[in-house]
Each structure stands twice: as C-alpha cells, then as structure tokens.
Amino acid sequence: MAPMKSFAGKFAKAAFTLSAPSRSWNTGISYTHTSKKGLLPTTTTATSAVSSPLLHKTPTAGTILSTAGIDATSSFSLEQMCKLFQATPKDNLYLSATADADGTGGERGVCLYKPIKQGDVVLSIPIASCFRDDEPPMWLGLGYNHAAQENDITDYERYNPSMWASRLAASILDMELNFNNGSNAHNNNNNNNNNIDADLIKGREIWHSMLPQKDKLKASLPVHWGEEVLATSKCTALELAVDSAYFARASAVMDLALELKGALKPEEESGSETTASECSNNNGMTEEERLLRQKSDLDAFNIALDMGMLQKKCHDALDIVQTRACRVERKCEDGVQWGPPLRILAPIFDFINHGSSRDGAAEGSANARFGIENDRMCDTRDARLVVRAARDIDEGEEVLIDYGDSARPAWRCLTSYGFVPDYDVSSEAYEDEDEDGRNVENVAELWMNGLRFEVDPHSVPFDLVEVAAAQAMFDDSVDEGDDAEDGEGGAFTPSIARAIAKRATAAAFNLITEPEMVDSEEDWDSPELVTAASLAALLRWSQHKVLLAFAENLNLFSSSEQAE
To answer: Strand 400-401 and strand 353-354: pairing?
Structure first.
C-alpha cells in the first residue's frame, strides 16, 4: 500500500467546525481526483489514471503525451471524421495510445498536436452532425404526441424528458439498421436520415467502428452485473443504485424492443403477392427459386424479430448512450434559458476523457469546458457544440472535461460510465475547495452501530459524531483521562475522534480483504466477469484509501486538540 502523506503540519492548527447546511464537521482537509479514461503512450509523465465513459480509461490530467504515443490508425480516422462532420479544427487533435501490460492496445484520449491558449477552440462540431434526443426516428413512438402536429408545439410538450436515453438509443439502432440495409433511410420511416448527406453517413460509419466492443462495455457497467459480482464491491450505495437502474433499464429495453420490432416487419406482411409468371420474368428466377428465397428471407426476419435478440441490441444501444451522451443547456450569453436541456451524442467529442472539477492548473483536473454556441436564439440549425480551453493547454497534453456530478463519487462514476476514478485523497487537493464542497469528489461508506454514513477525508458527518458519542456512554471507548463530559451532547472531542478513526481503520482493511466466493454457476474465468470483478476491486481500493485518509486526519485532529 502506498504510504500516506502526513497532514500533521496542516492539522496542528486546524479544528473541525460544524457546518449546518451539510450537517458535517469540517476539518479543512483537502483531497484530489484524477482524470478519466484515455490512452496513455509509454512516454508519458502520467501519475494516476482514471477510466471514462467514453470507451477508454483515464490517463492523468495534465499529462503530456509525446507524439510517439499516437495511435496512428485511430488518429487518421479522427482526422477523417473531423472533415466528414465539418468539425474544426481538422488537424490539431489526435488519439493517444499505449500498450497494456500484456502488450495489447489500451485506452485512448484526445490530445493536441499544437498548444492552444485559454479560451481558444479545442473542438467545434455542428449540432446537425450529432445524435439529438429531440430528433428520434419516426418509428419510435416513445414520448411523441402524435395527436399534436402543430408547428407551435414545444419540445416540452412533444417529448417526455425522462425518456431521452431511449430516443438517443433509437437513433443508434436506426443508424445500425441503415448500415445493414446499405441505405441512408430505413423503409422511408426515418425523419432524420432521409436527407442525410453521404459525408455524415460515412463519418458515422467510422465513428461506429471505433466504439468499444459491446461485451467489454457491457461488462464494465454494474447494471449488467450479477448479484455475486456486485456483492464483491462491498458498497451499499452501488447496490442500491443498480437496483434502481435495473428496473428502469428493463422497462426501457422492453418498450424500445417492441418499437423496433414494429419497424422491422417483413414486407410479406403487407398482403401483396407475386405470381409465378411474374417471378419467372423477375431476375430470371424460377418458381422454386423464388420460394426458396422467400423462405430464406422470412427465416432471416424471424431471427431478427426474436425478442431476445432485439432486447440485446437495445441494451447495447443504451450502453453506448449511457456512457457517451452529454447534456447541454440552451441558453443565451446572459444566461437566459430559451429551451429545454438538450441531450446529445457527439462523435469525436465523446472521445474526450474526464477530469477533476478542481483548479484547472492542478494535475488531473479538467482543462476544457463545453457548451452550445449559436447566433440565433431558439434556433439550433446553425448551432455548434464547442469545446474551449479553460486554461493554456500544451502540445501533447490530453484534453479533459468535467463529466459533472454523475462522475462523483467513485461509485456513481462506475454506475454511470463503467470506470472507477483514481481520486487523490491528499490534503493539498482540498485547499481550493469552494463553499459547495465541489472538490469533495469521493466518499466512502462507514457503518457504525448498524447505521450507514458517507464520509470523506476532510469532514465528519454530524450524525456520526452523535452516534459515536452515544456509544461512548455505554462502553470504554472514552479514555479515562478525558473530560467526563466528553461524550455528552454529541460533542466532537478527541476521544470521539479516536473512536471513529478506529472504526474507519477497521472498515478500510475489511475492504481490501478478498471477498469470499461462494459456489456458483458463474464462470469466473470469463473475460467479462474478470472485467467486472476488477472494477469491483478498484472501487473497494478507492473507498479503502478514503477511509484511511479519514482515520489519519481524525487521529491528527485528536493529537492536536490534546496538545492544546
């Protein structure tokens, strides 16, 4: 285990103060987080790596990547996509690459060939080149008000906001259907692709070919894990989140699969028949050949319409949306909102990895921000999704954006995106924390007297102090040398701090104890289960580090208070 940094000098003068809004005792301790998934070349000066929702894993923020680590094939494809999607600049972005320990290719991240200044454009892509949740294919009836076709109907009235993921997934499925049909329109039922240009189709084909393998992506998302794998994470919050997501996902998949099945009905169901003489004159086929071909086509349709297969395709599409889509606000420069939030899946942009929300100059922090930019209010036809540098970004440095609250804490990031961020729990990371505690990017679970609490290295929940104080009244946890009133009224005293620290230390080491594996039918040697079990272990390690830092800071607080 890596040695812990000492906060003695910092904490000797610090005192825990009660924060009423958050109901916690603030220690003033700081902590850090790293970036998300990406491909690190072997010539990097990387520190910690975090994986991201985008198919990759996180490299460390602020990492300078030598051009020797360029993934030449993917970078050529990236440049092609920039041209096909009319994204700018077309020649300043490349995908970094590195080899894993076994020599296979690892993750990727978007880096710069040339340095750019703060405020400059890193990437600008037309909204028209993106998948949008307000433009689903016509065969999808989810959330669409067919009775209201007036021009003045708003997006608020037309679409159910809670079903944005299904609408985006339907667009992904429709794209795949078009690829399979060799056409840019599926049975003339798609209101988006009928007039789609050839460049956009080609760009999407390249983008689709660069997505992660479906089985690997599925294995990284806890919503697909079995109960035994999930239990190895030893994280109640993750289990509760998965329980909630599981039923929501099952409902969305069933509805989406039924809609997709309706869009795939064979033409034979239309009732039209072809006579033997017509078939003989059609492509020179005999009656026997026609019947054999018709049977083959119907067999193919029956396979395609199998609900089990359709549901798997819907799961795969929703996995892509879950890990790669983003939300943008439709606002003017003065902050006035002129439309509902827009969920989009933007090719190229979705390869940018996650960085911490801390100060942009810190290692592992986000160095870019994004949003919609357009000249005309209430009109997104000419709008673009623009990524701008939040600070100066050096040549070879990876571009990182903050994924927001869905990437904090670590268990939520795993639930949302399928990777565990490597958050730094050192005190220096907390120095610039704002009033909202934005830099508290990771927490750990601590059970005490049958109650569950979430703690971070720099604060103690008020309720936890009360429970520890009550417990101290019934056992010998309060040292004899302490004041007799130390355990009364929930006071946060040195003895209470030591009692909580002792419990946190025990919990931390329990997390790194290998979970007992019961006999089951699970194939624990399969690549998918290995991936899932590895992520569960990473989450345990992440919480272990938080609890150890939390316990150390409590002990330092106790020592400093007693010294005074």
So the answer is: parallel
Residues near 230 by Cβ (< 8 Å), separated by ≥ 6? 222, 238, 239, 242, 536
DSSP H/E element including 338? strand 337-345
Residue (of 121, 109, 14) closest to 56 by Cα position: 109
> CA-to-CA distance for 137 and 187, rounded, in angstroms?
11
Cis peptide before 409 (omega within 30 of 0): yes
Q: Which residues pair with 18 in a beta bridge?
A: 25
Distances (CA, A) of 125 to 74, 79, 85, 385, 389: 18, 13, 7, 5, 15
Provide the b/e sequence for 201-211 (b: ≥16 CB within 10 Å). Answer: bebbebbeebb
**Terminal-to-terminal C-alpha distance of the chain:** 32
When mean pLDDT is compared across 312-316, 363-367, 495-499, the lowest value belongs to 363-367
- Give every CB contact of residue 174 below 8 A, 6+ residues apart in sequence: 137, 139, 186, 190, 192, 193
Cα torsion 220, 223, 227, 232 to 10°: value is 40
- Mean pLDDT, all residues of the chain: 74
3-state SS record for 141-198: CCCCCCCCCCCCCCHHHHCCHHHHHHHHHHHHHHHHHHHHHCCCCCCCCCCCCCCCCH
CA 387 to chain CA mean position, Å:
18
Cα-flanking dihedrals φ and ψ of residue 53, to 5°? -70, -10
DSSP-based three-state secondary structure for 200: helix
CA pair distance 550, 3, nearest whole angstrom: 14
455 within 8 A of 550, measured Cβ to Cβ: yes
141: number of CA atoms within 13 Å, CB side? 10
**Helix, strand or coil, per DSSP, at residue 331:** strand
pTM exceeding the 0.85 threshold for the entire prediction: no
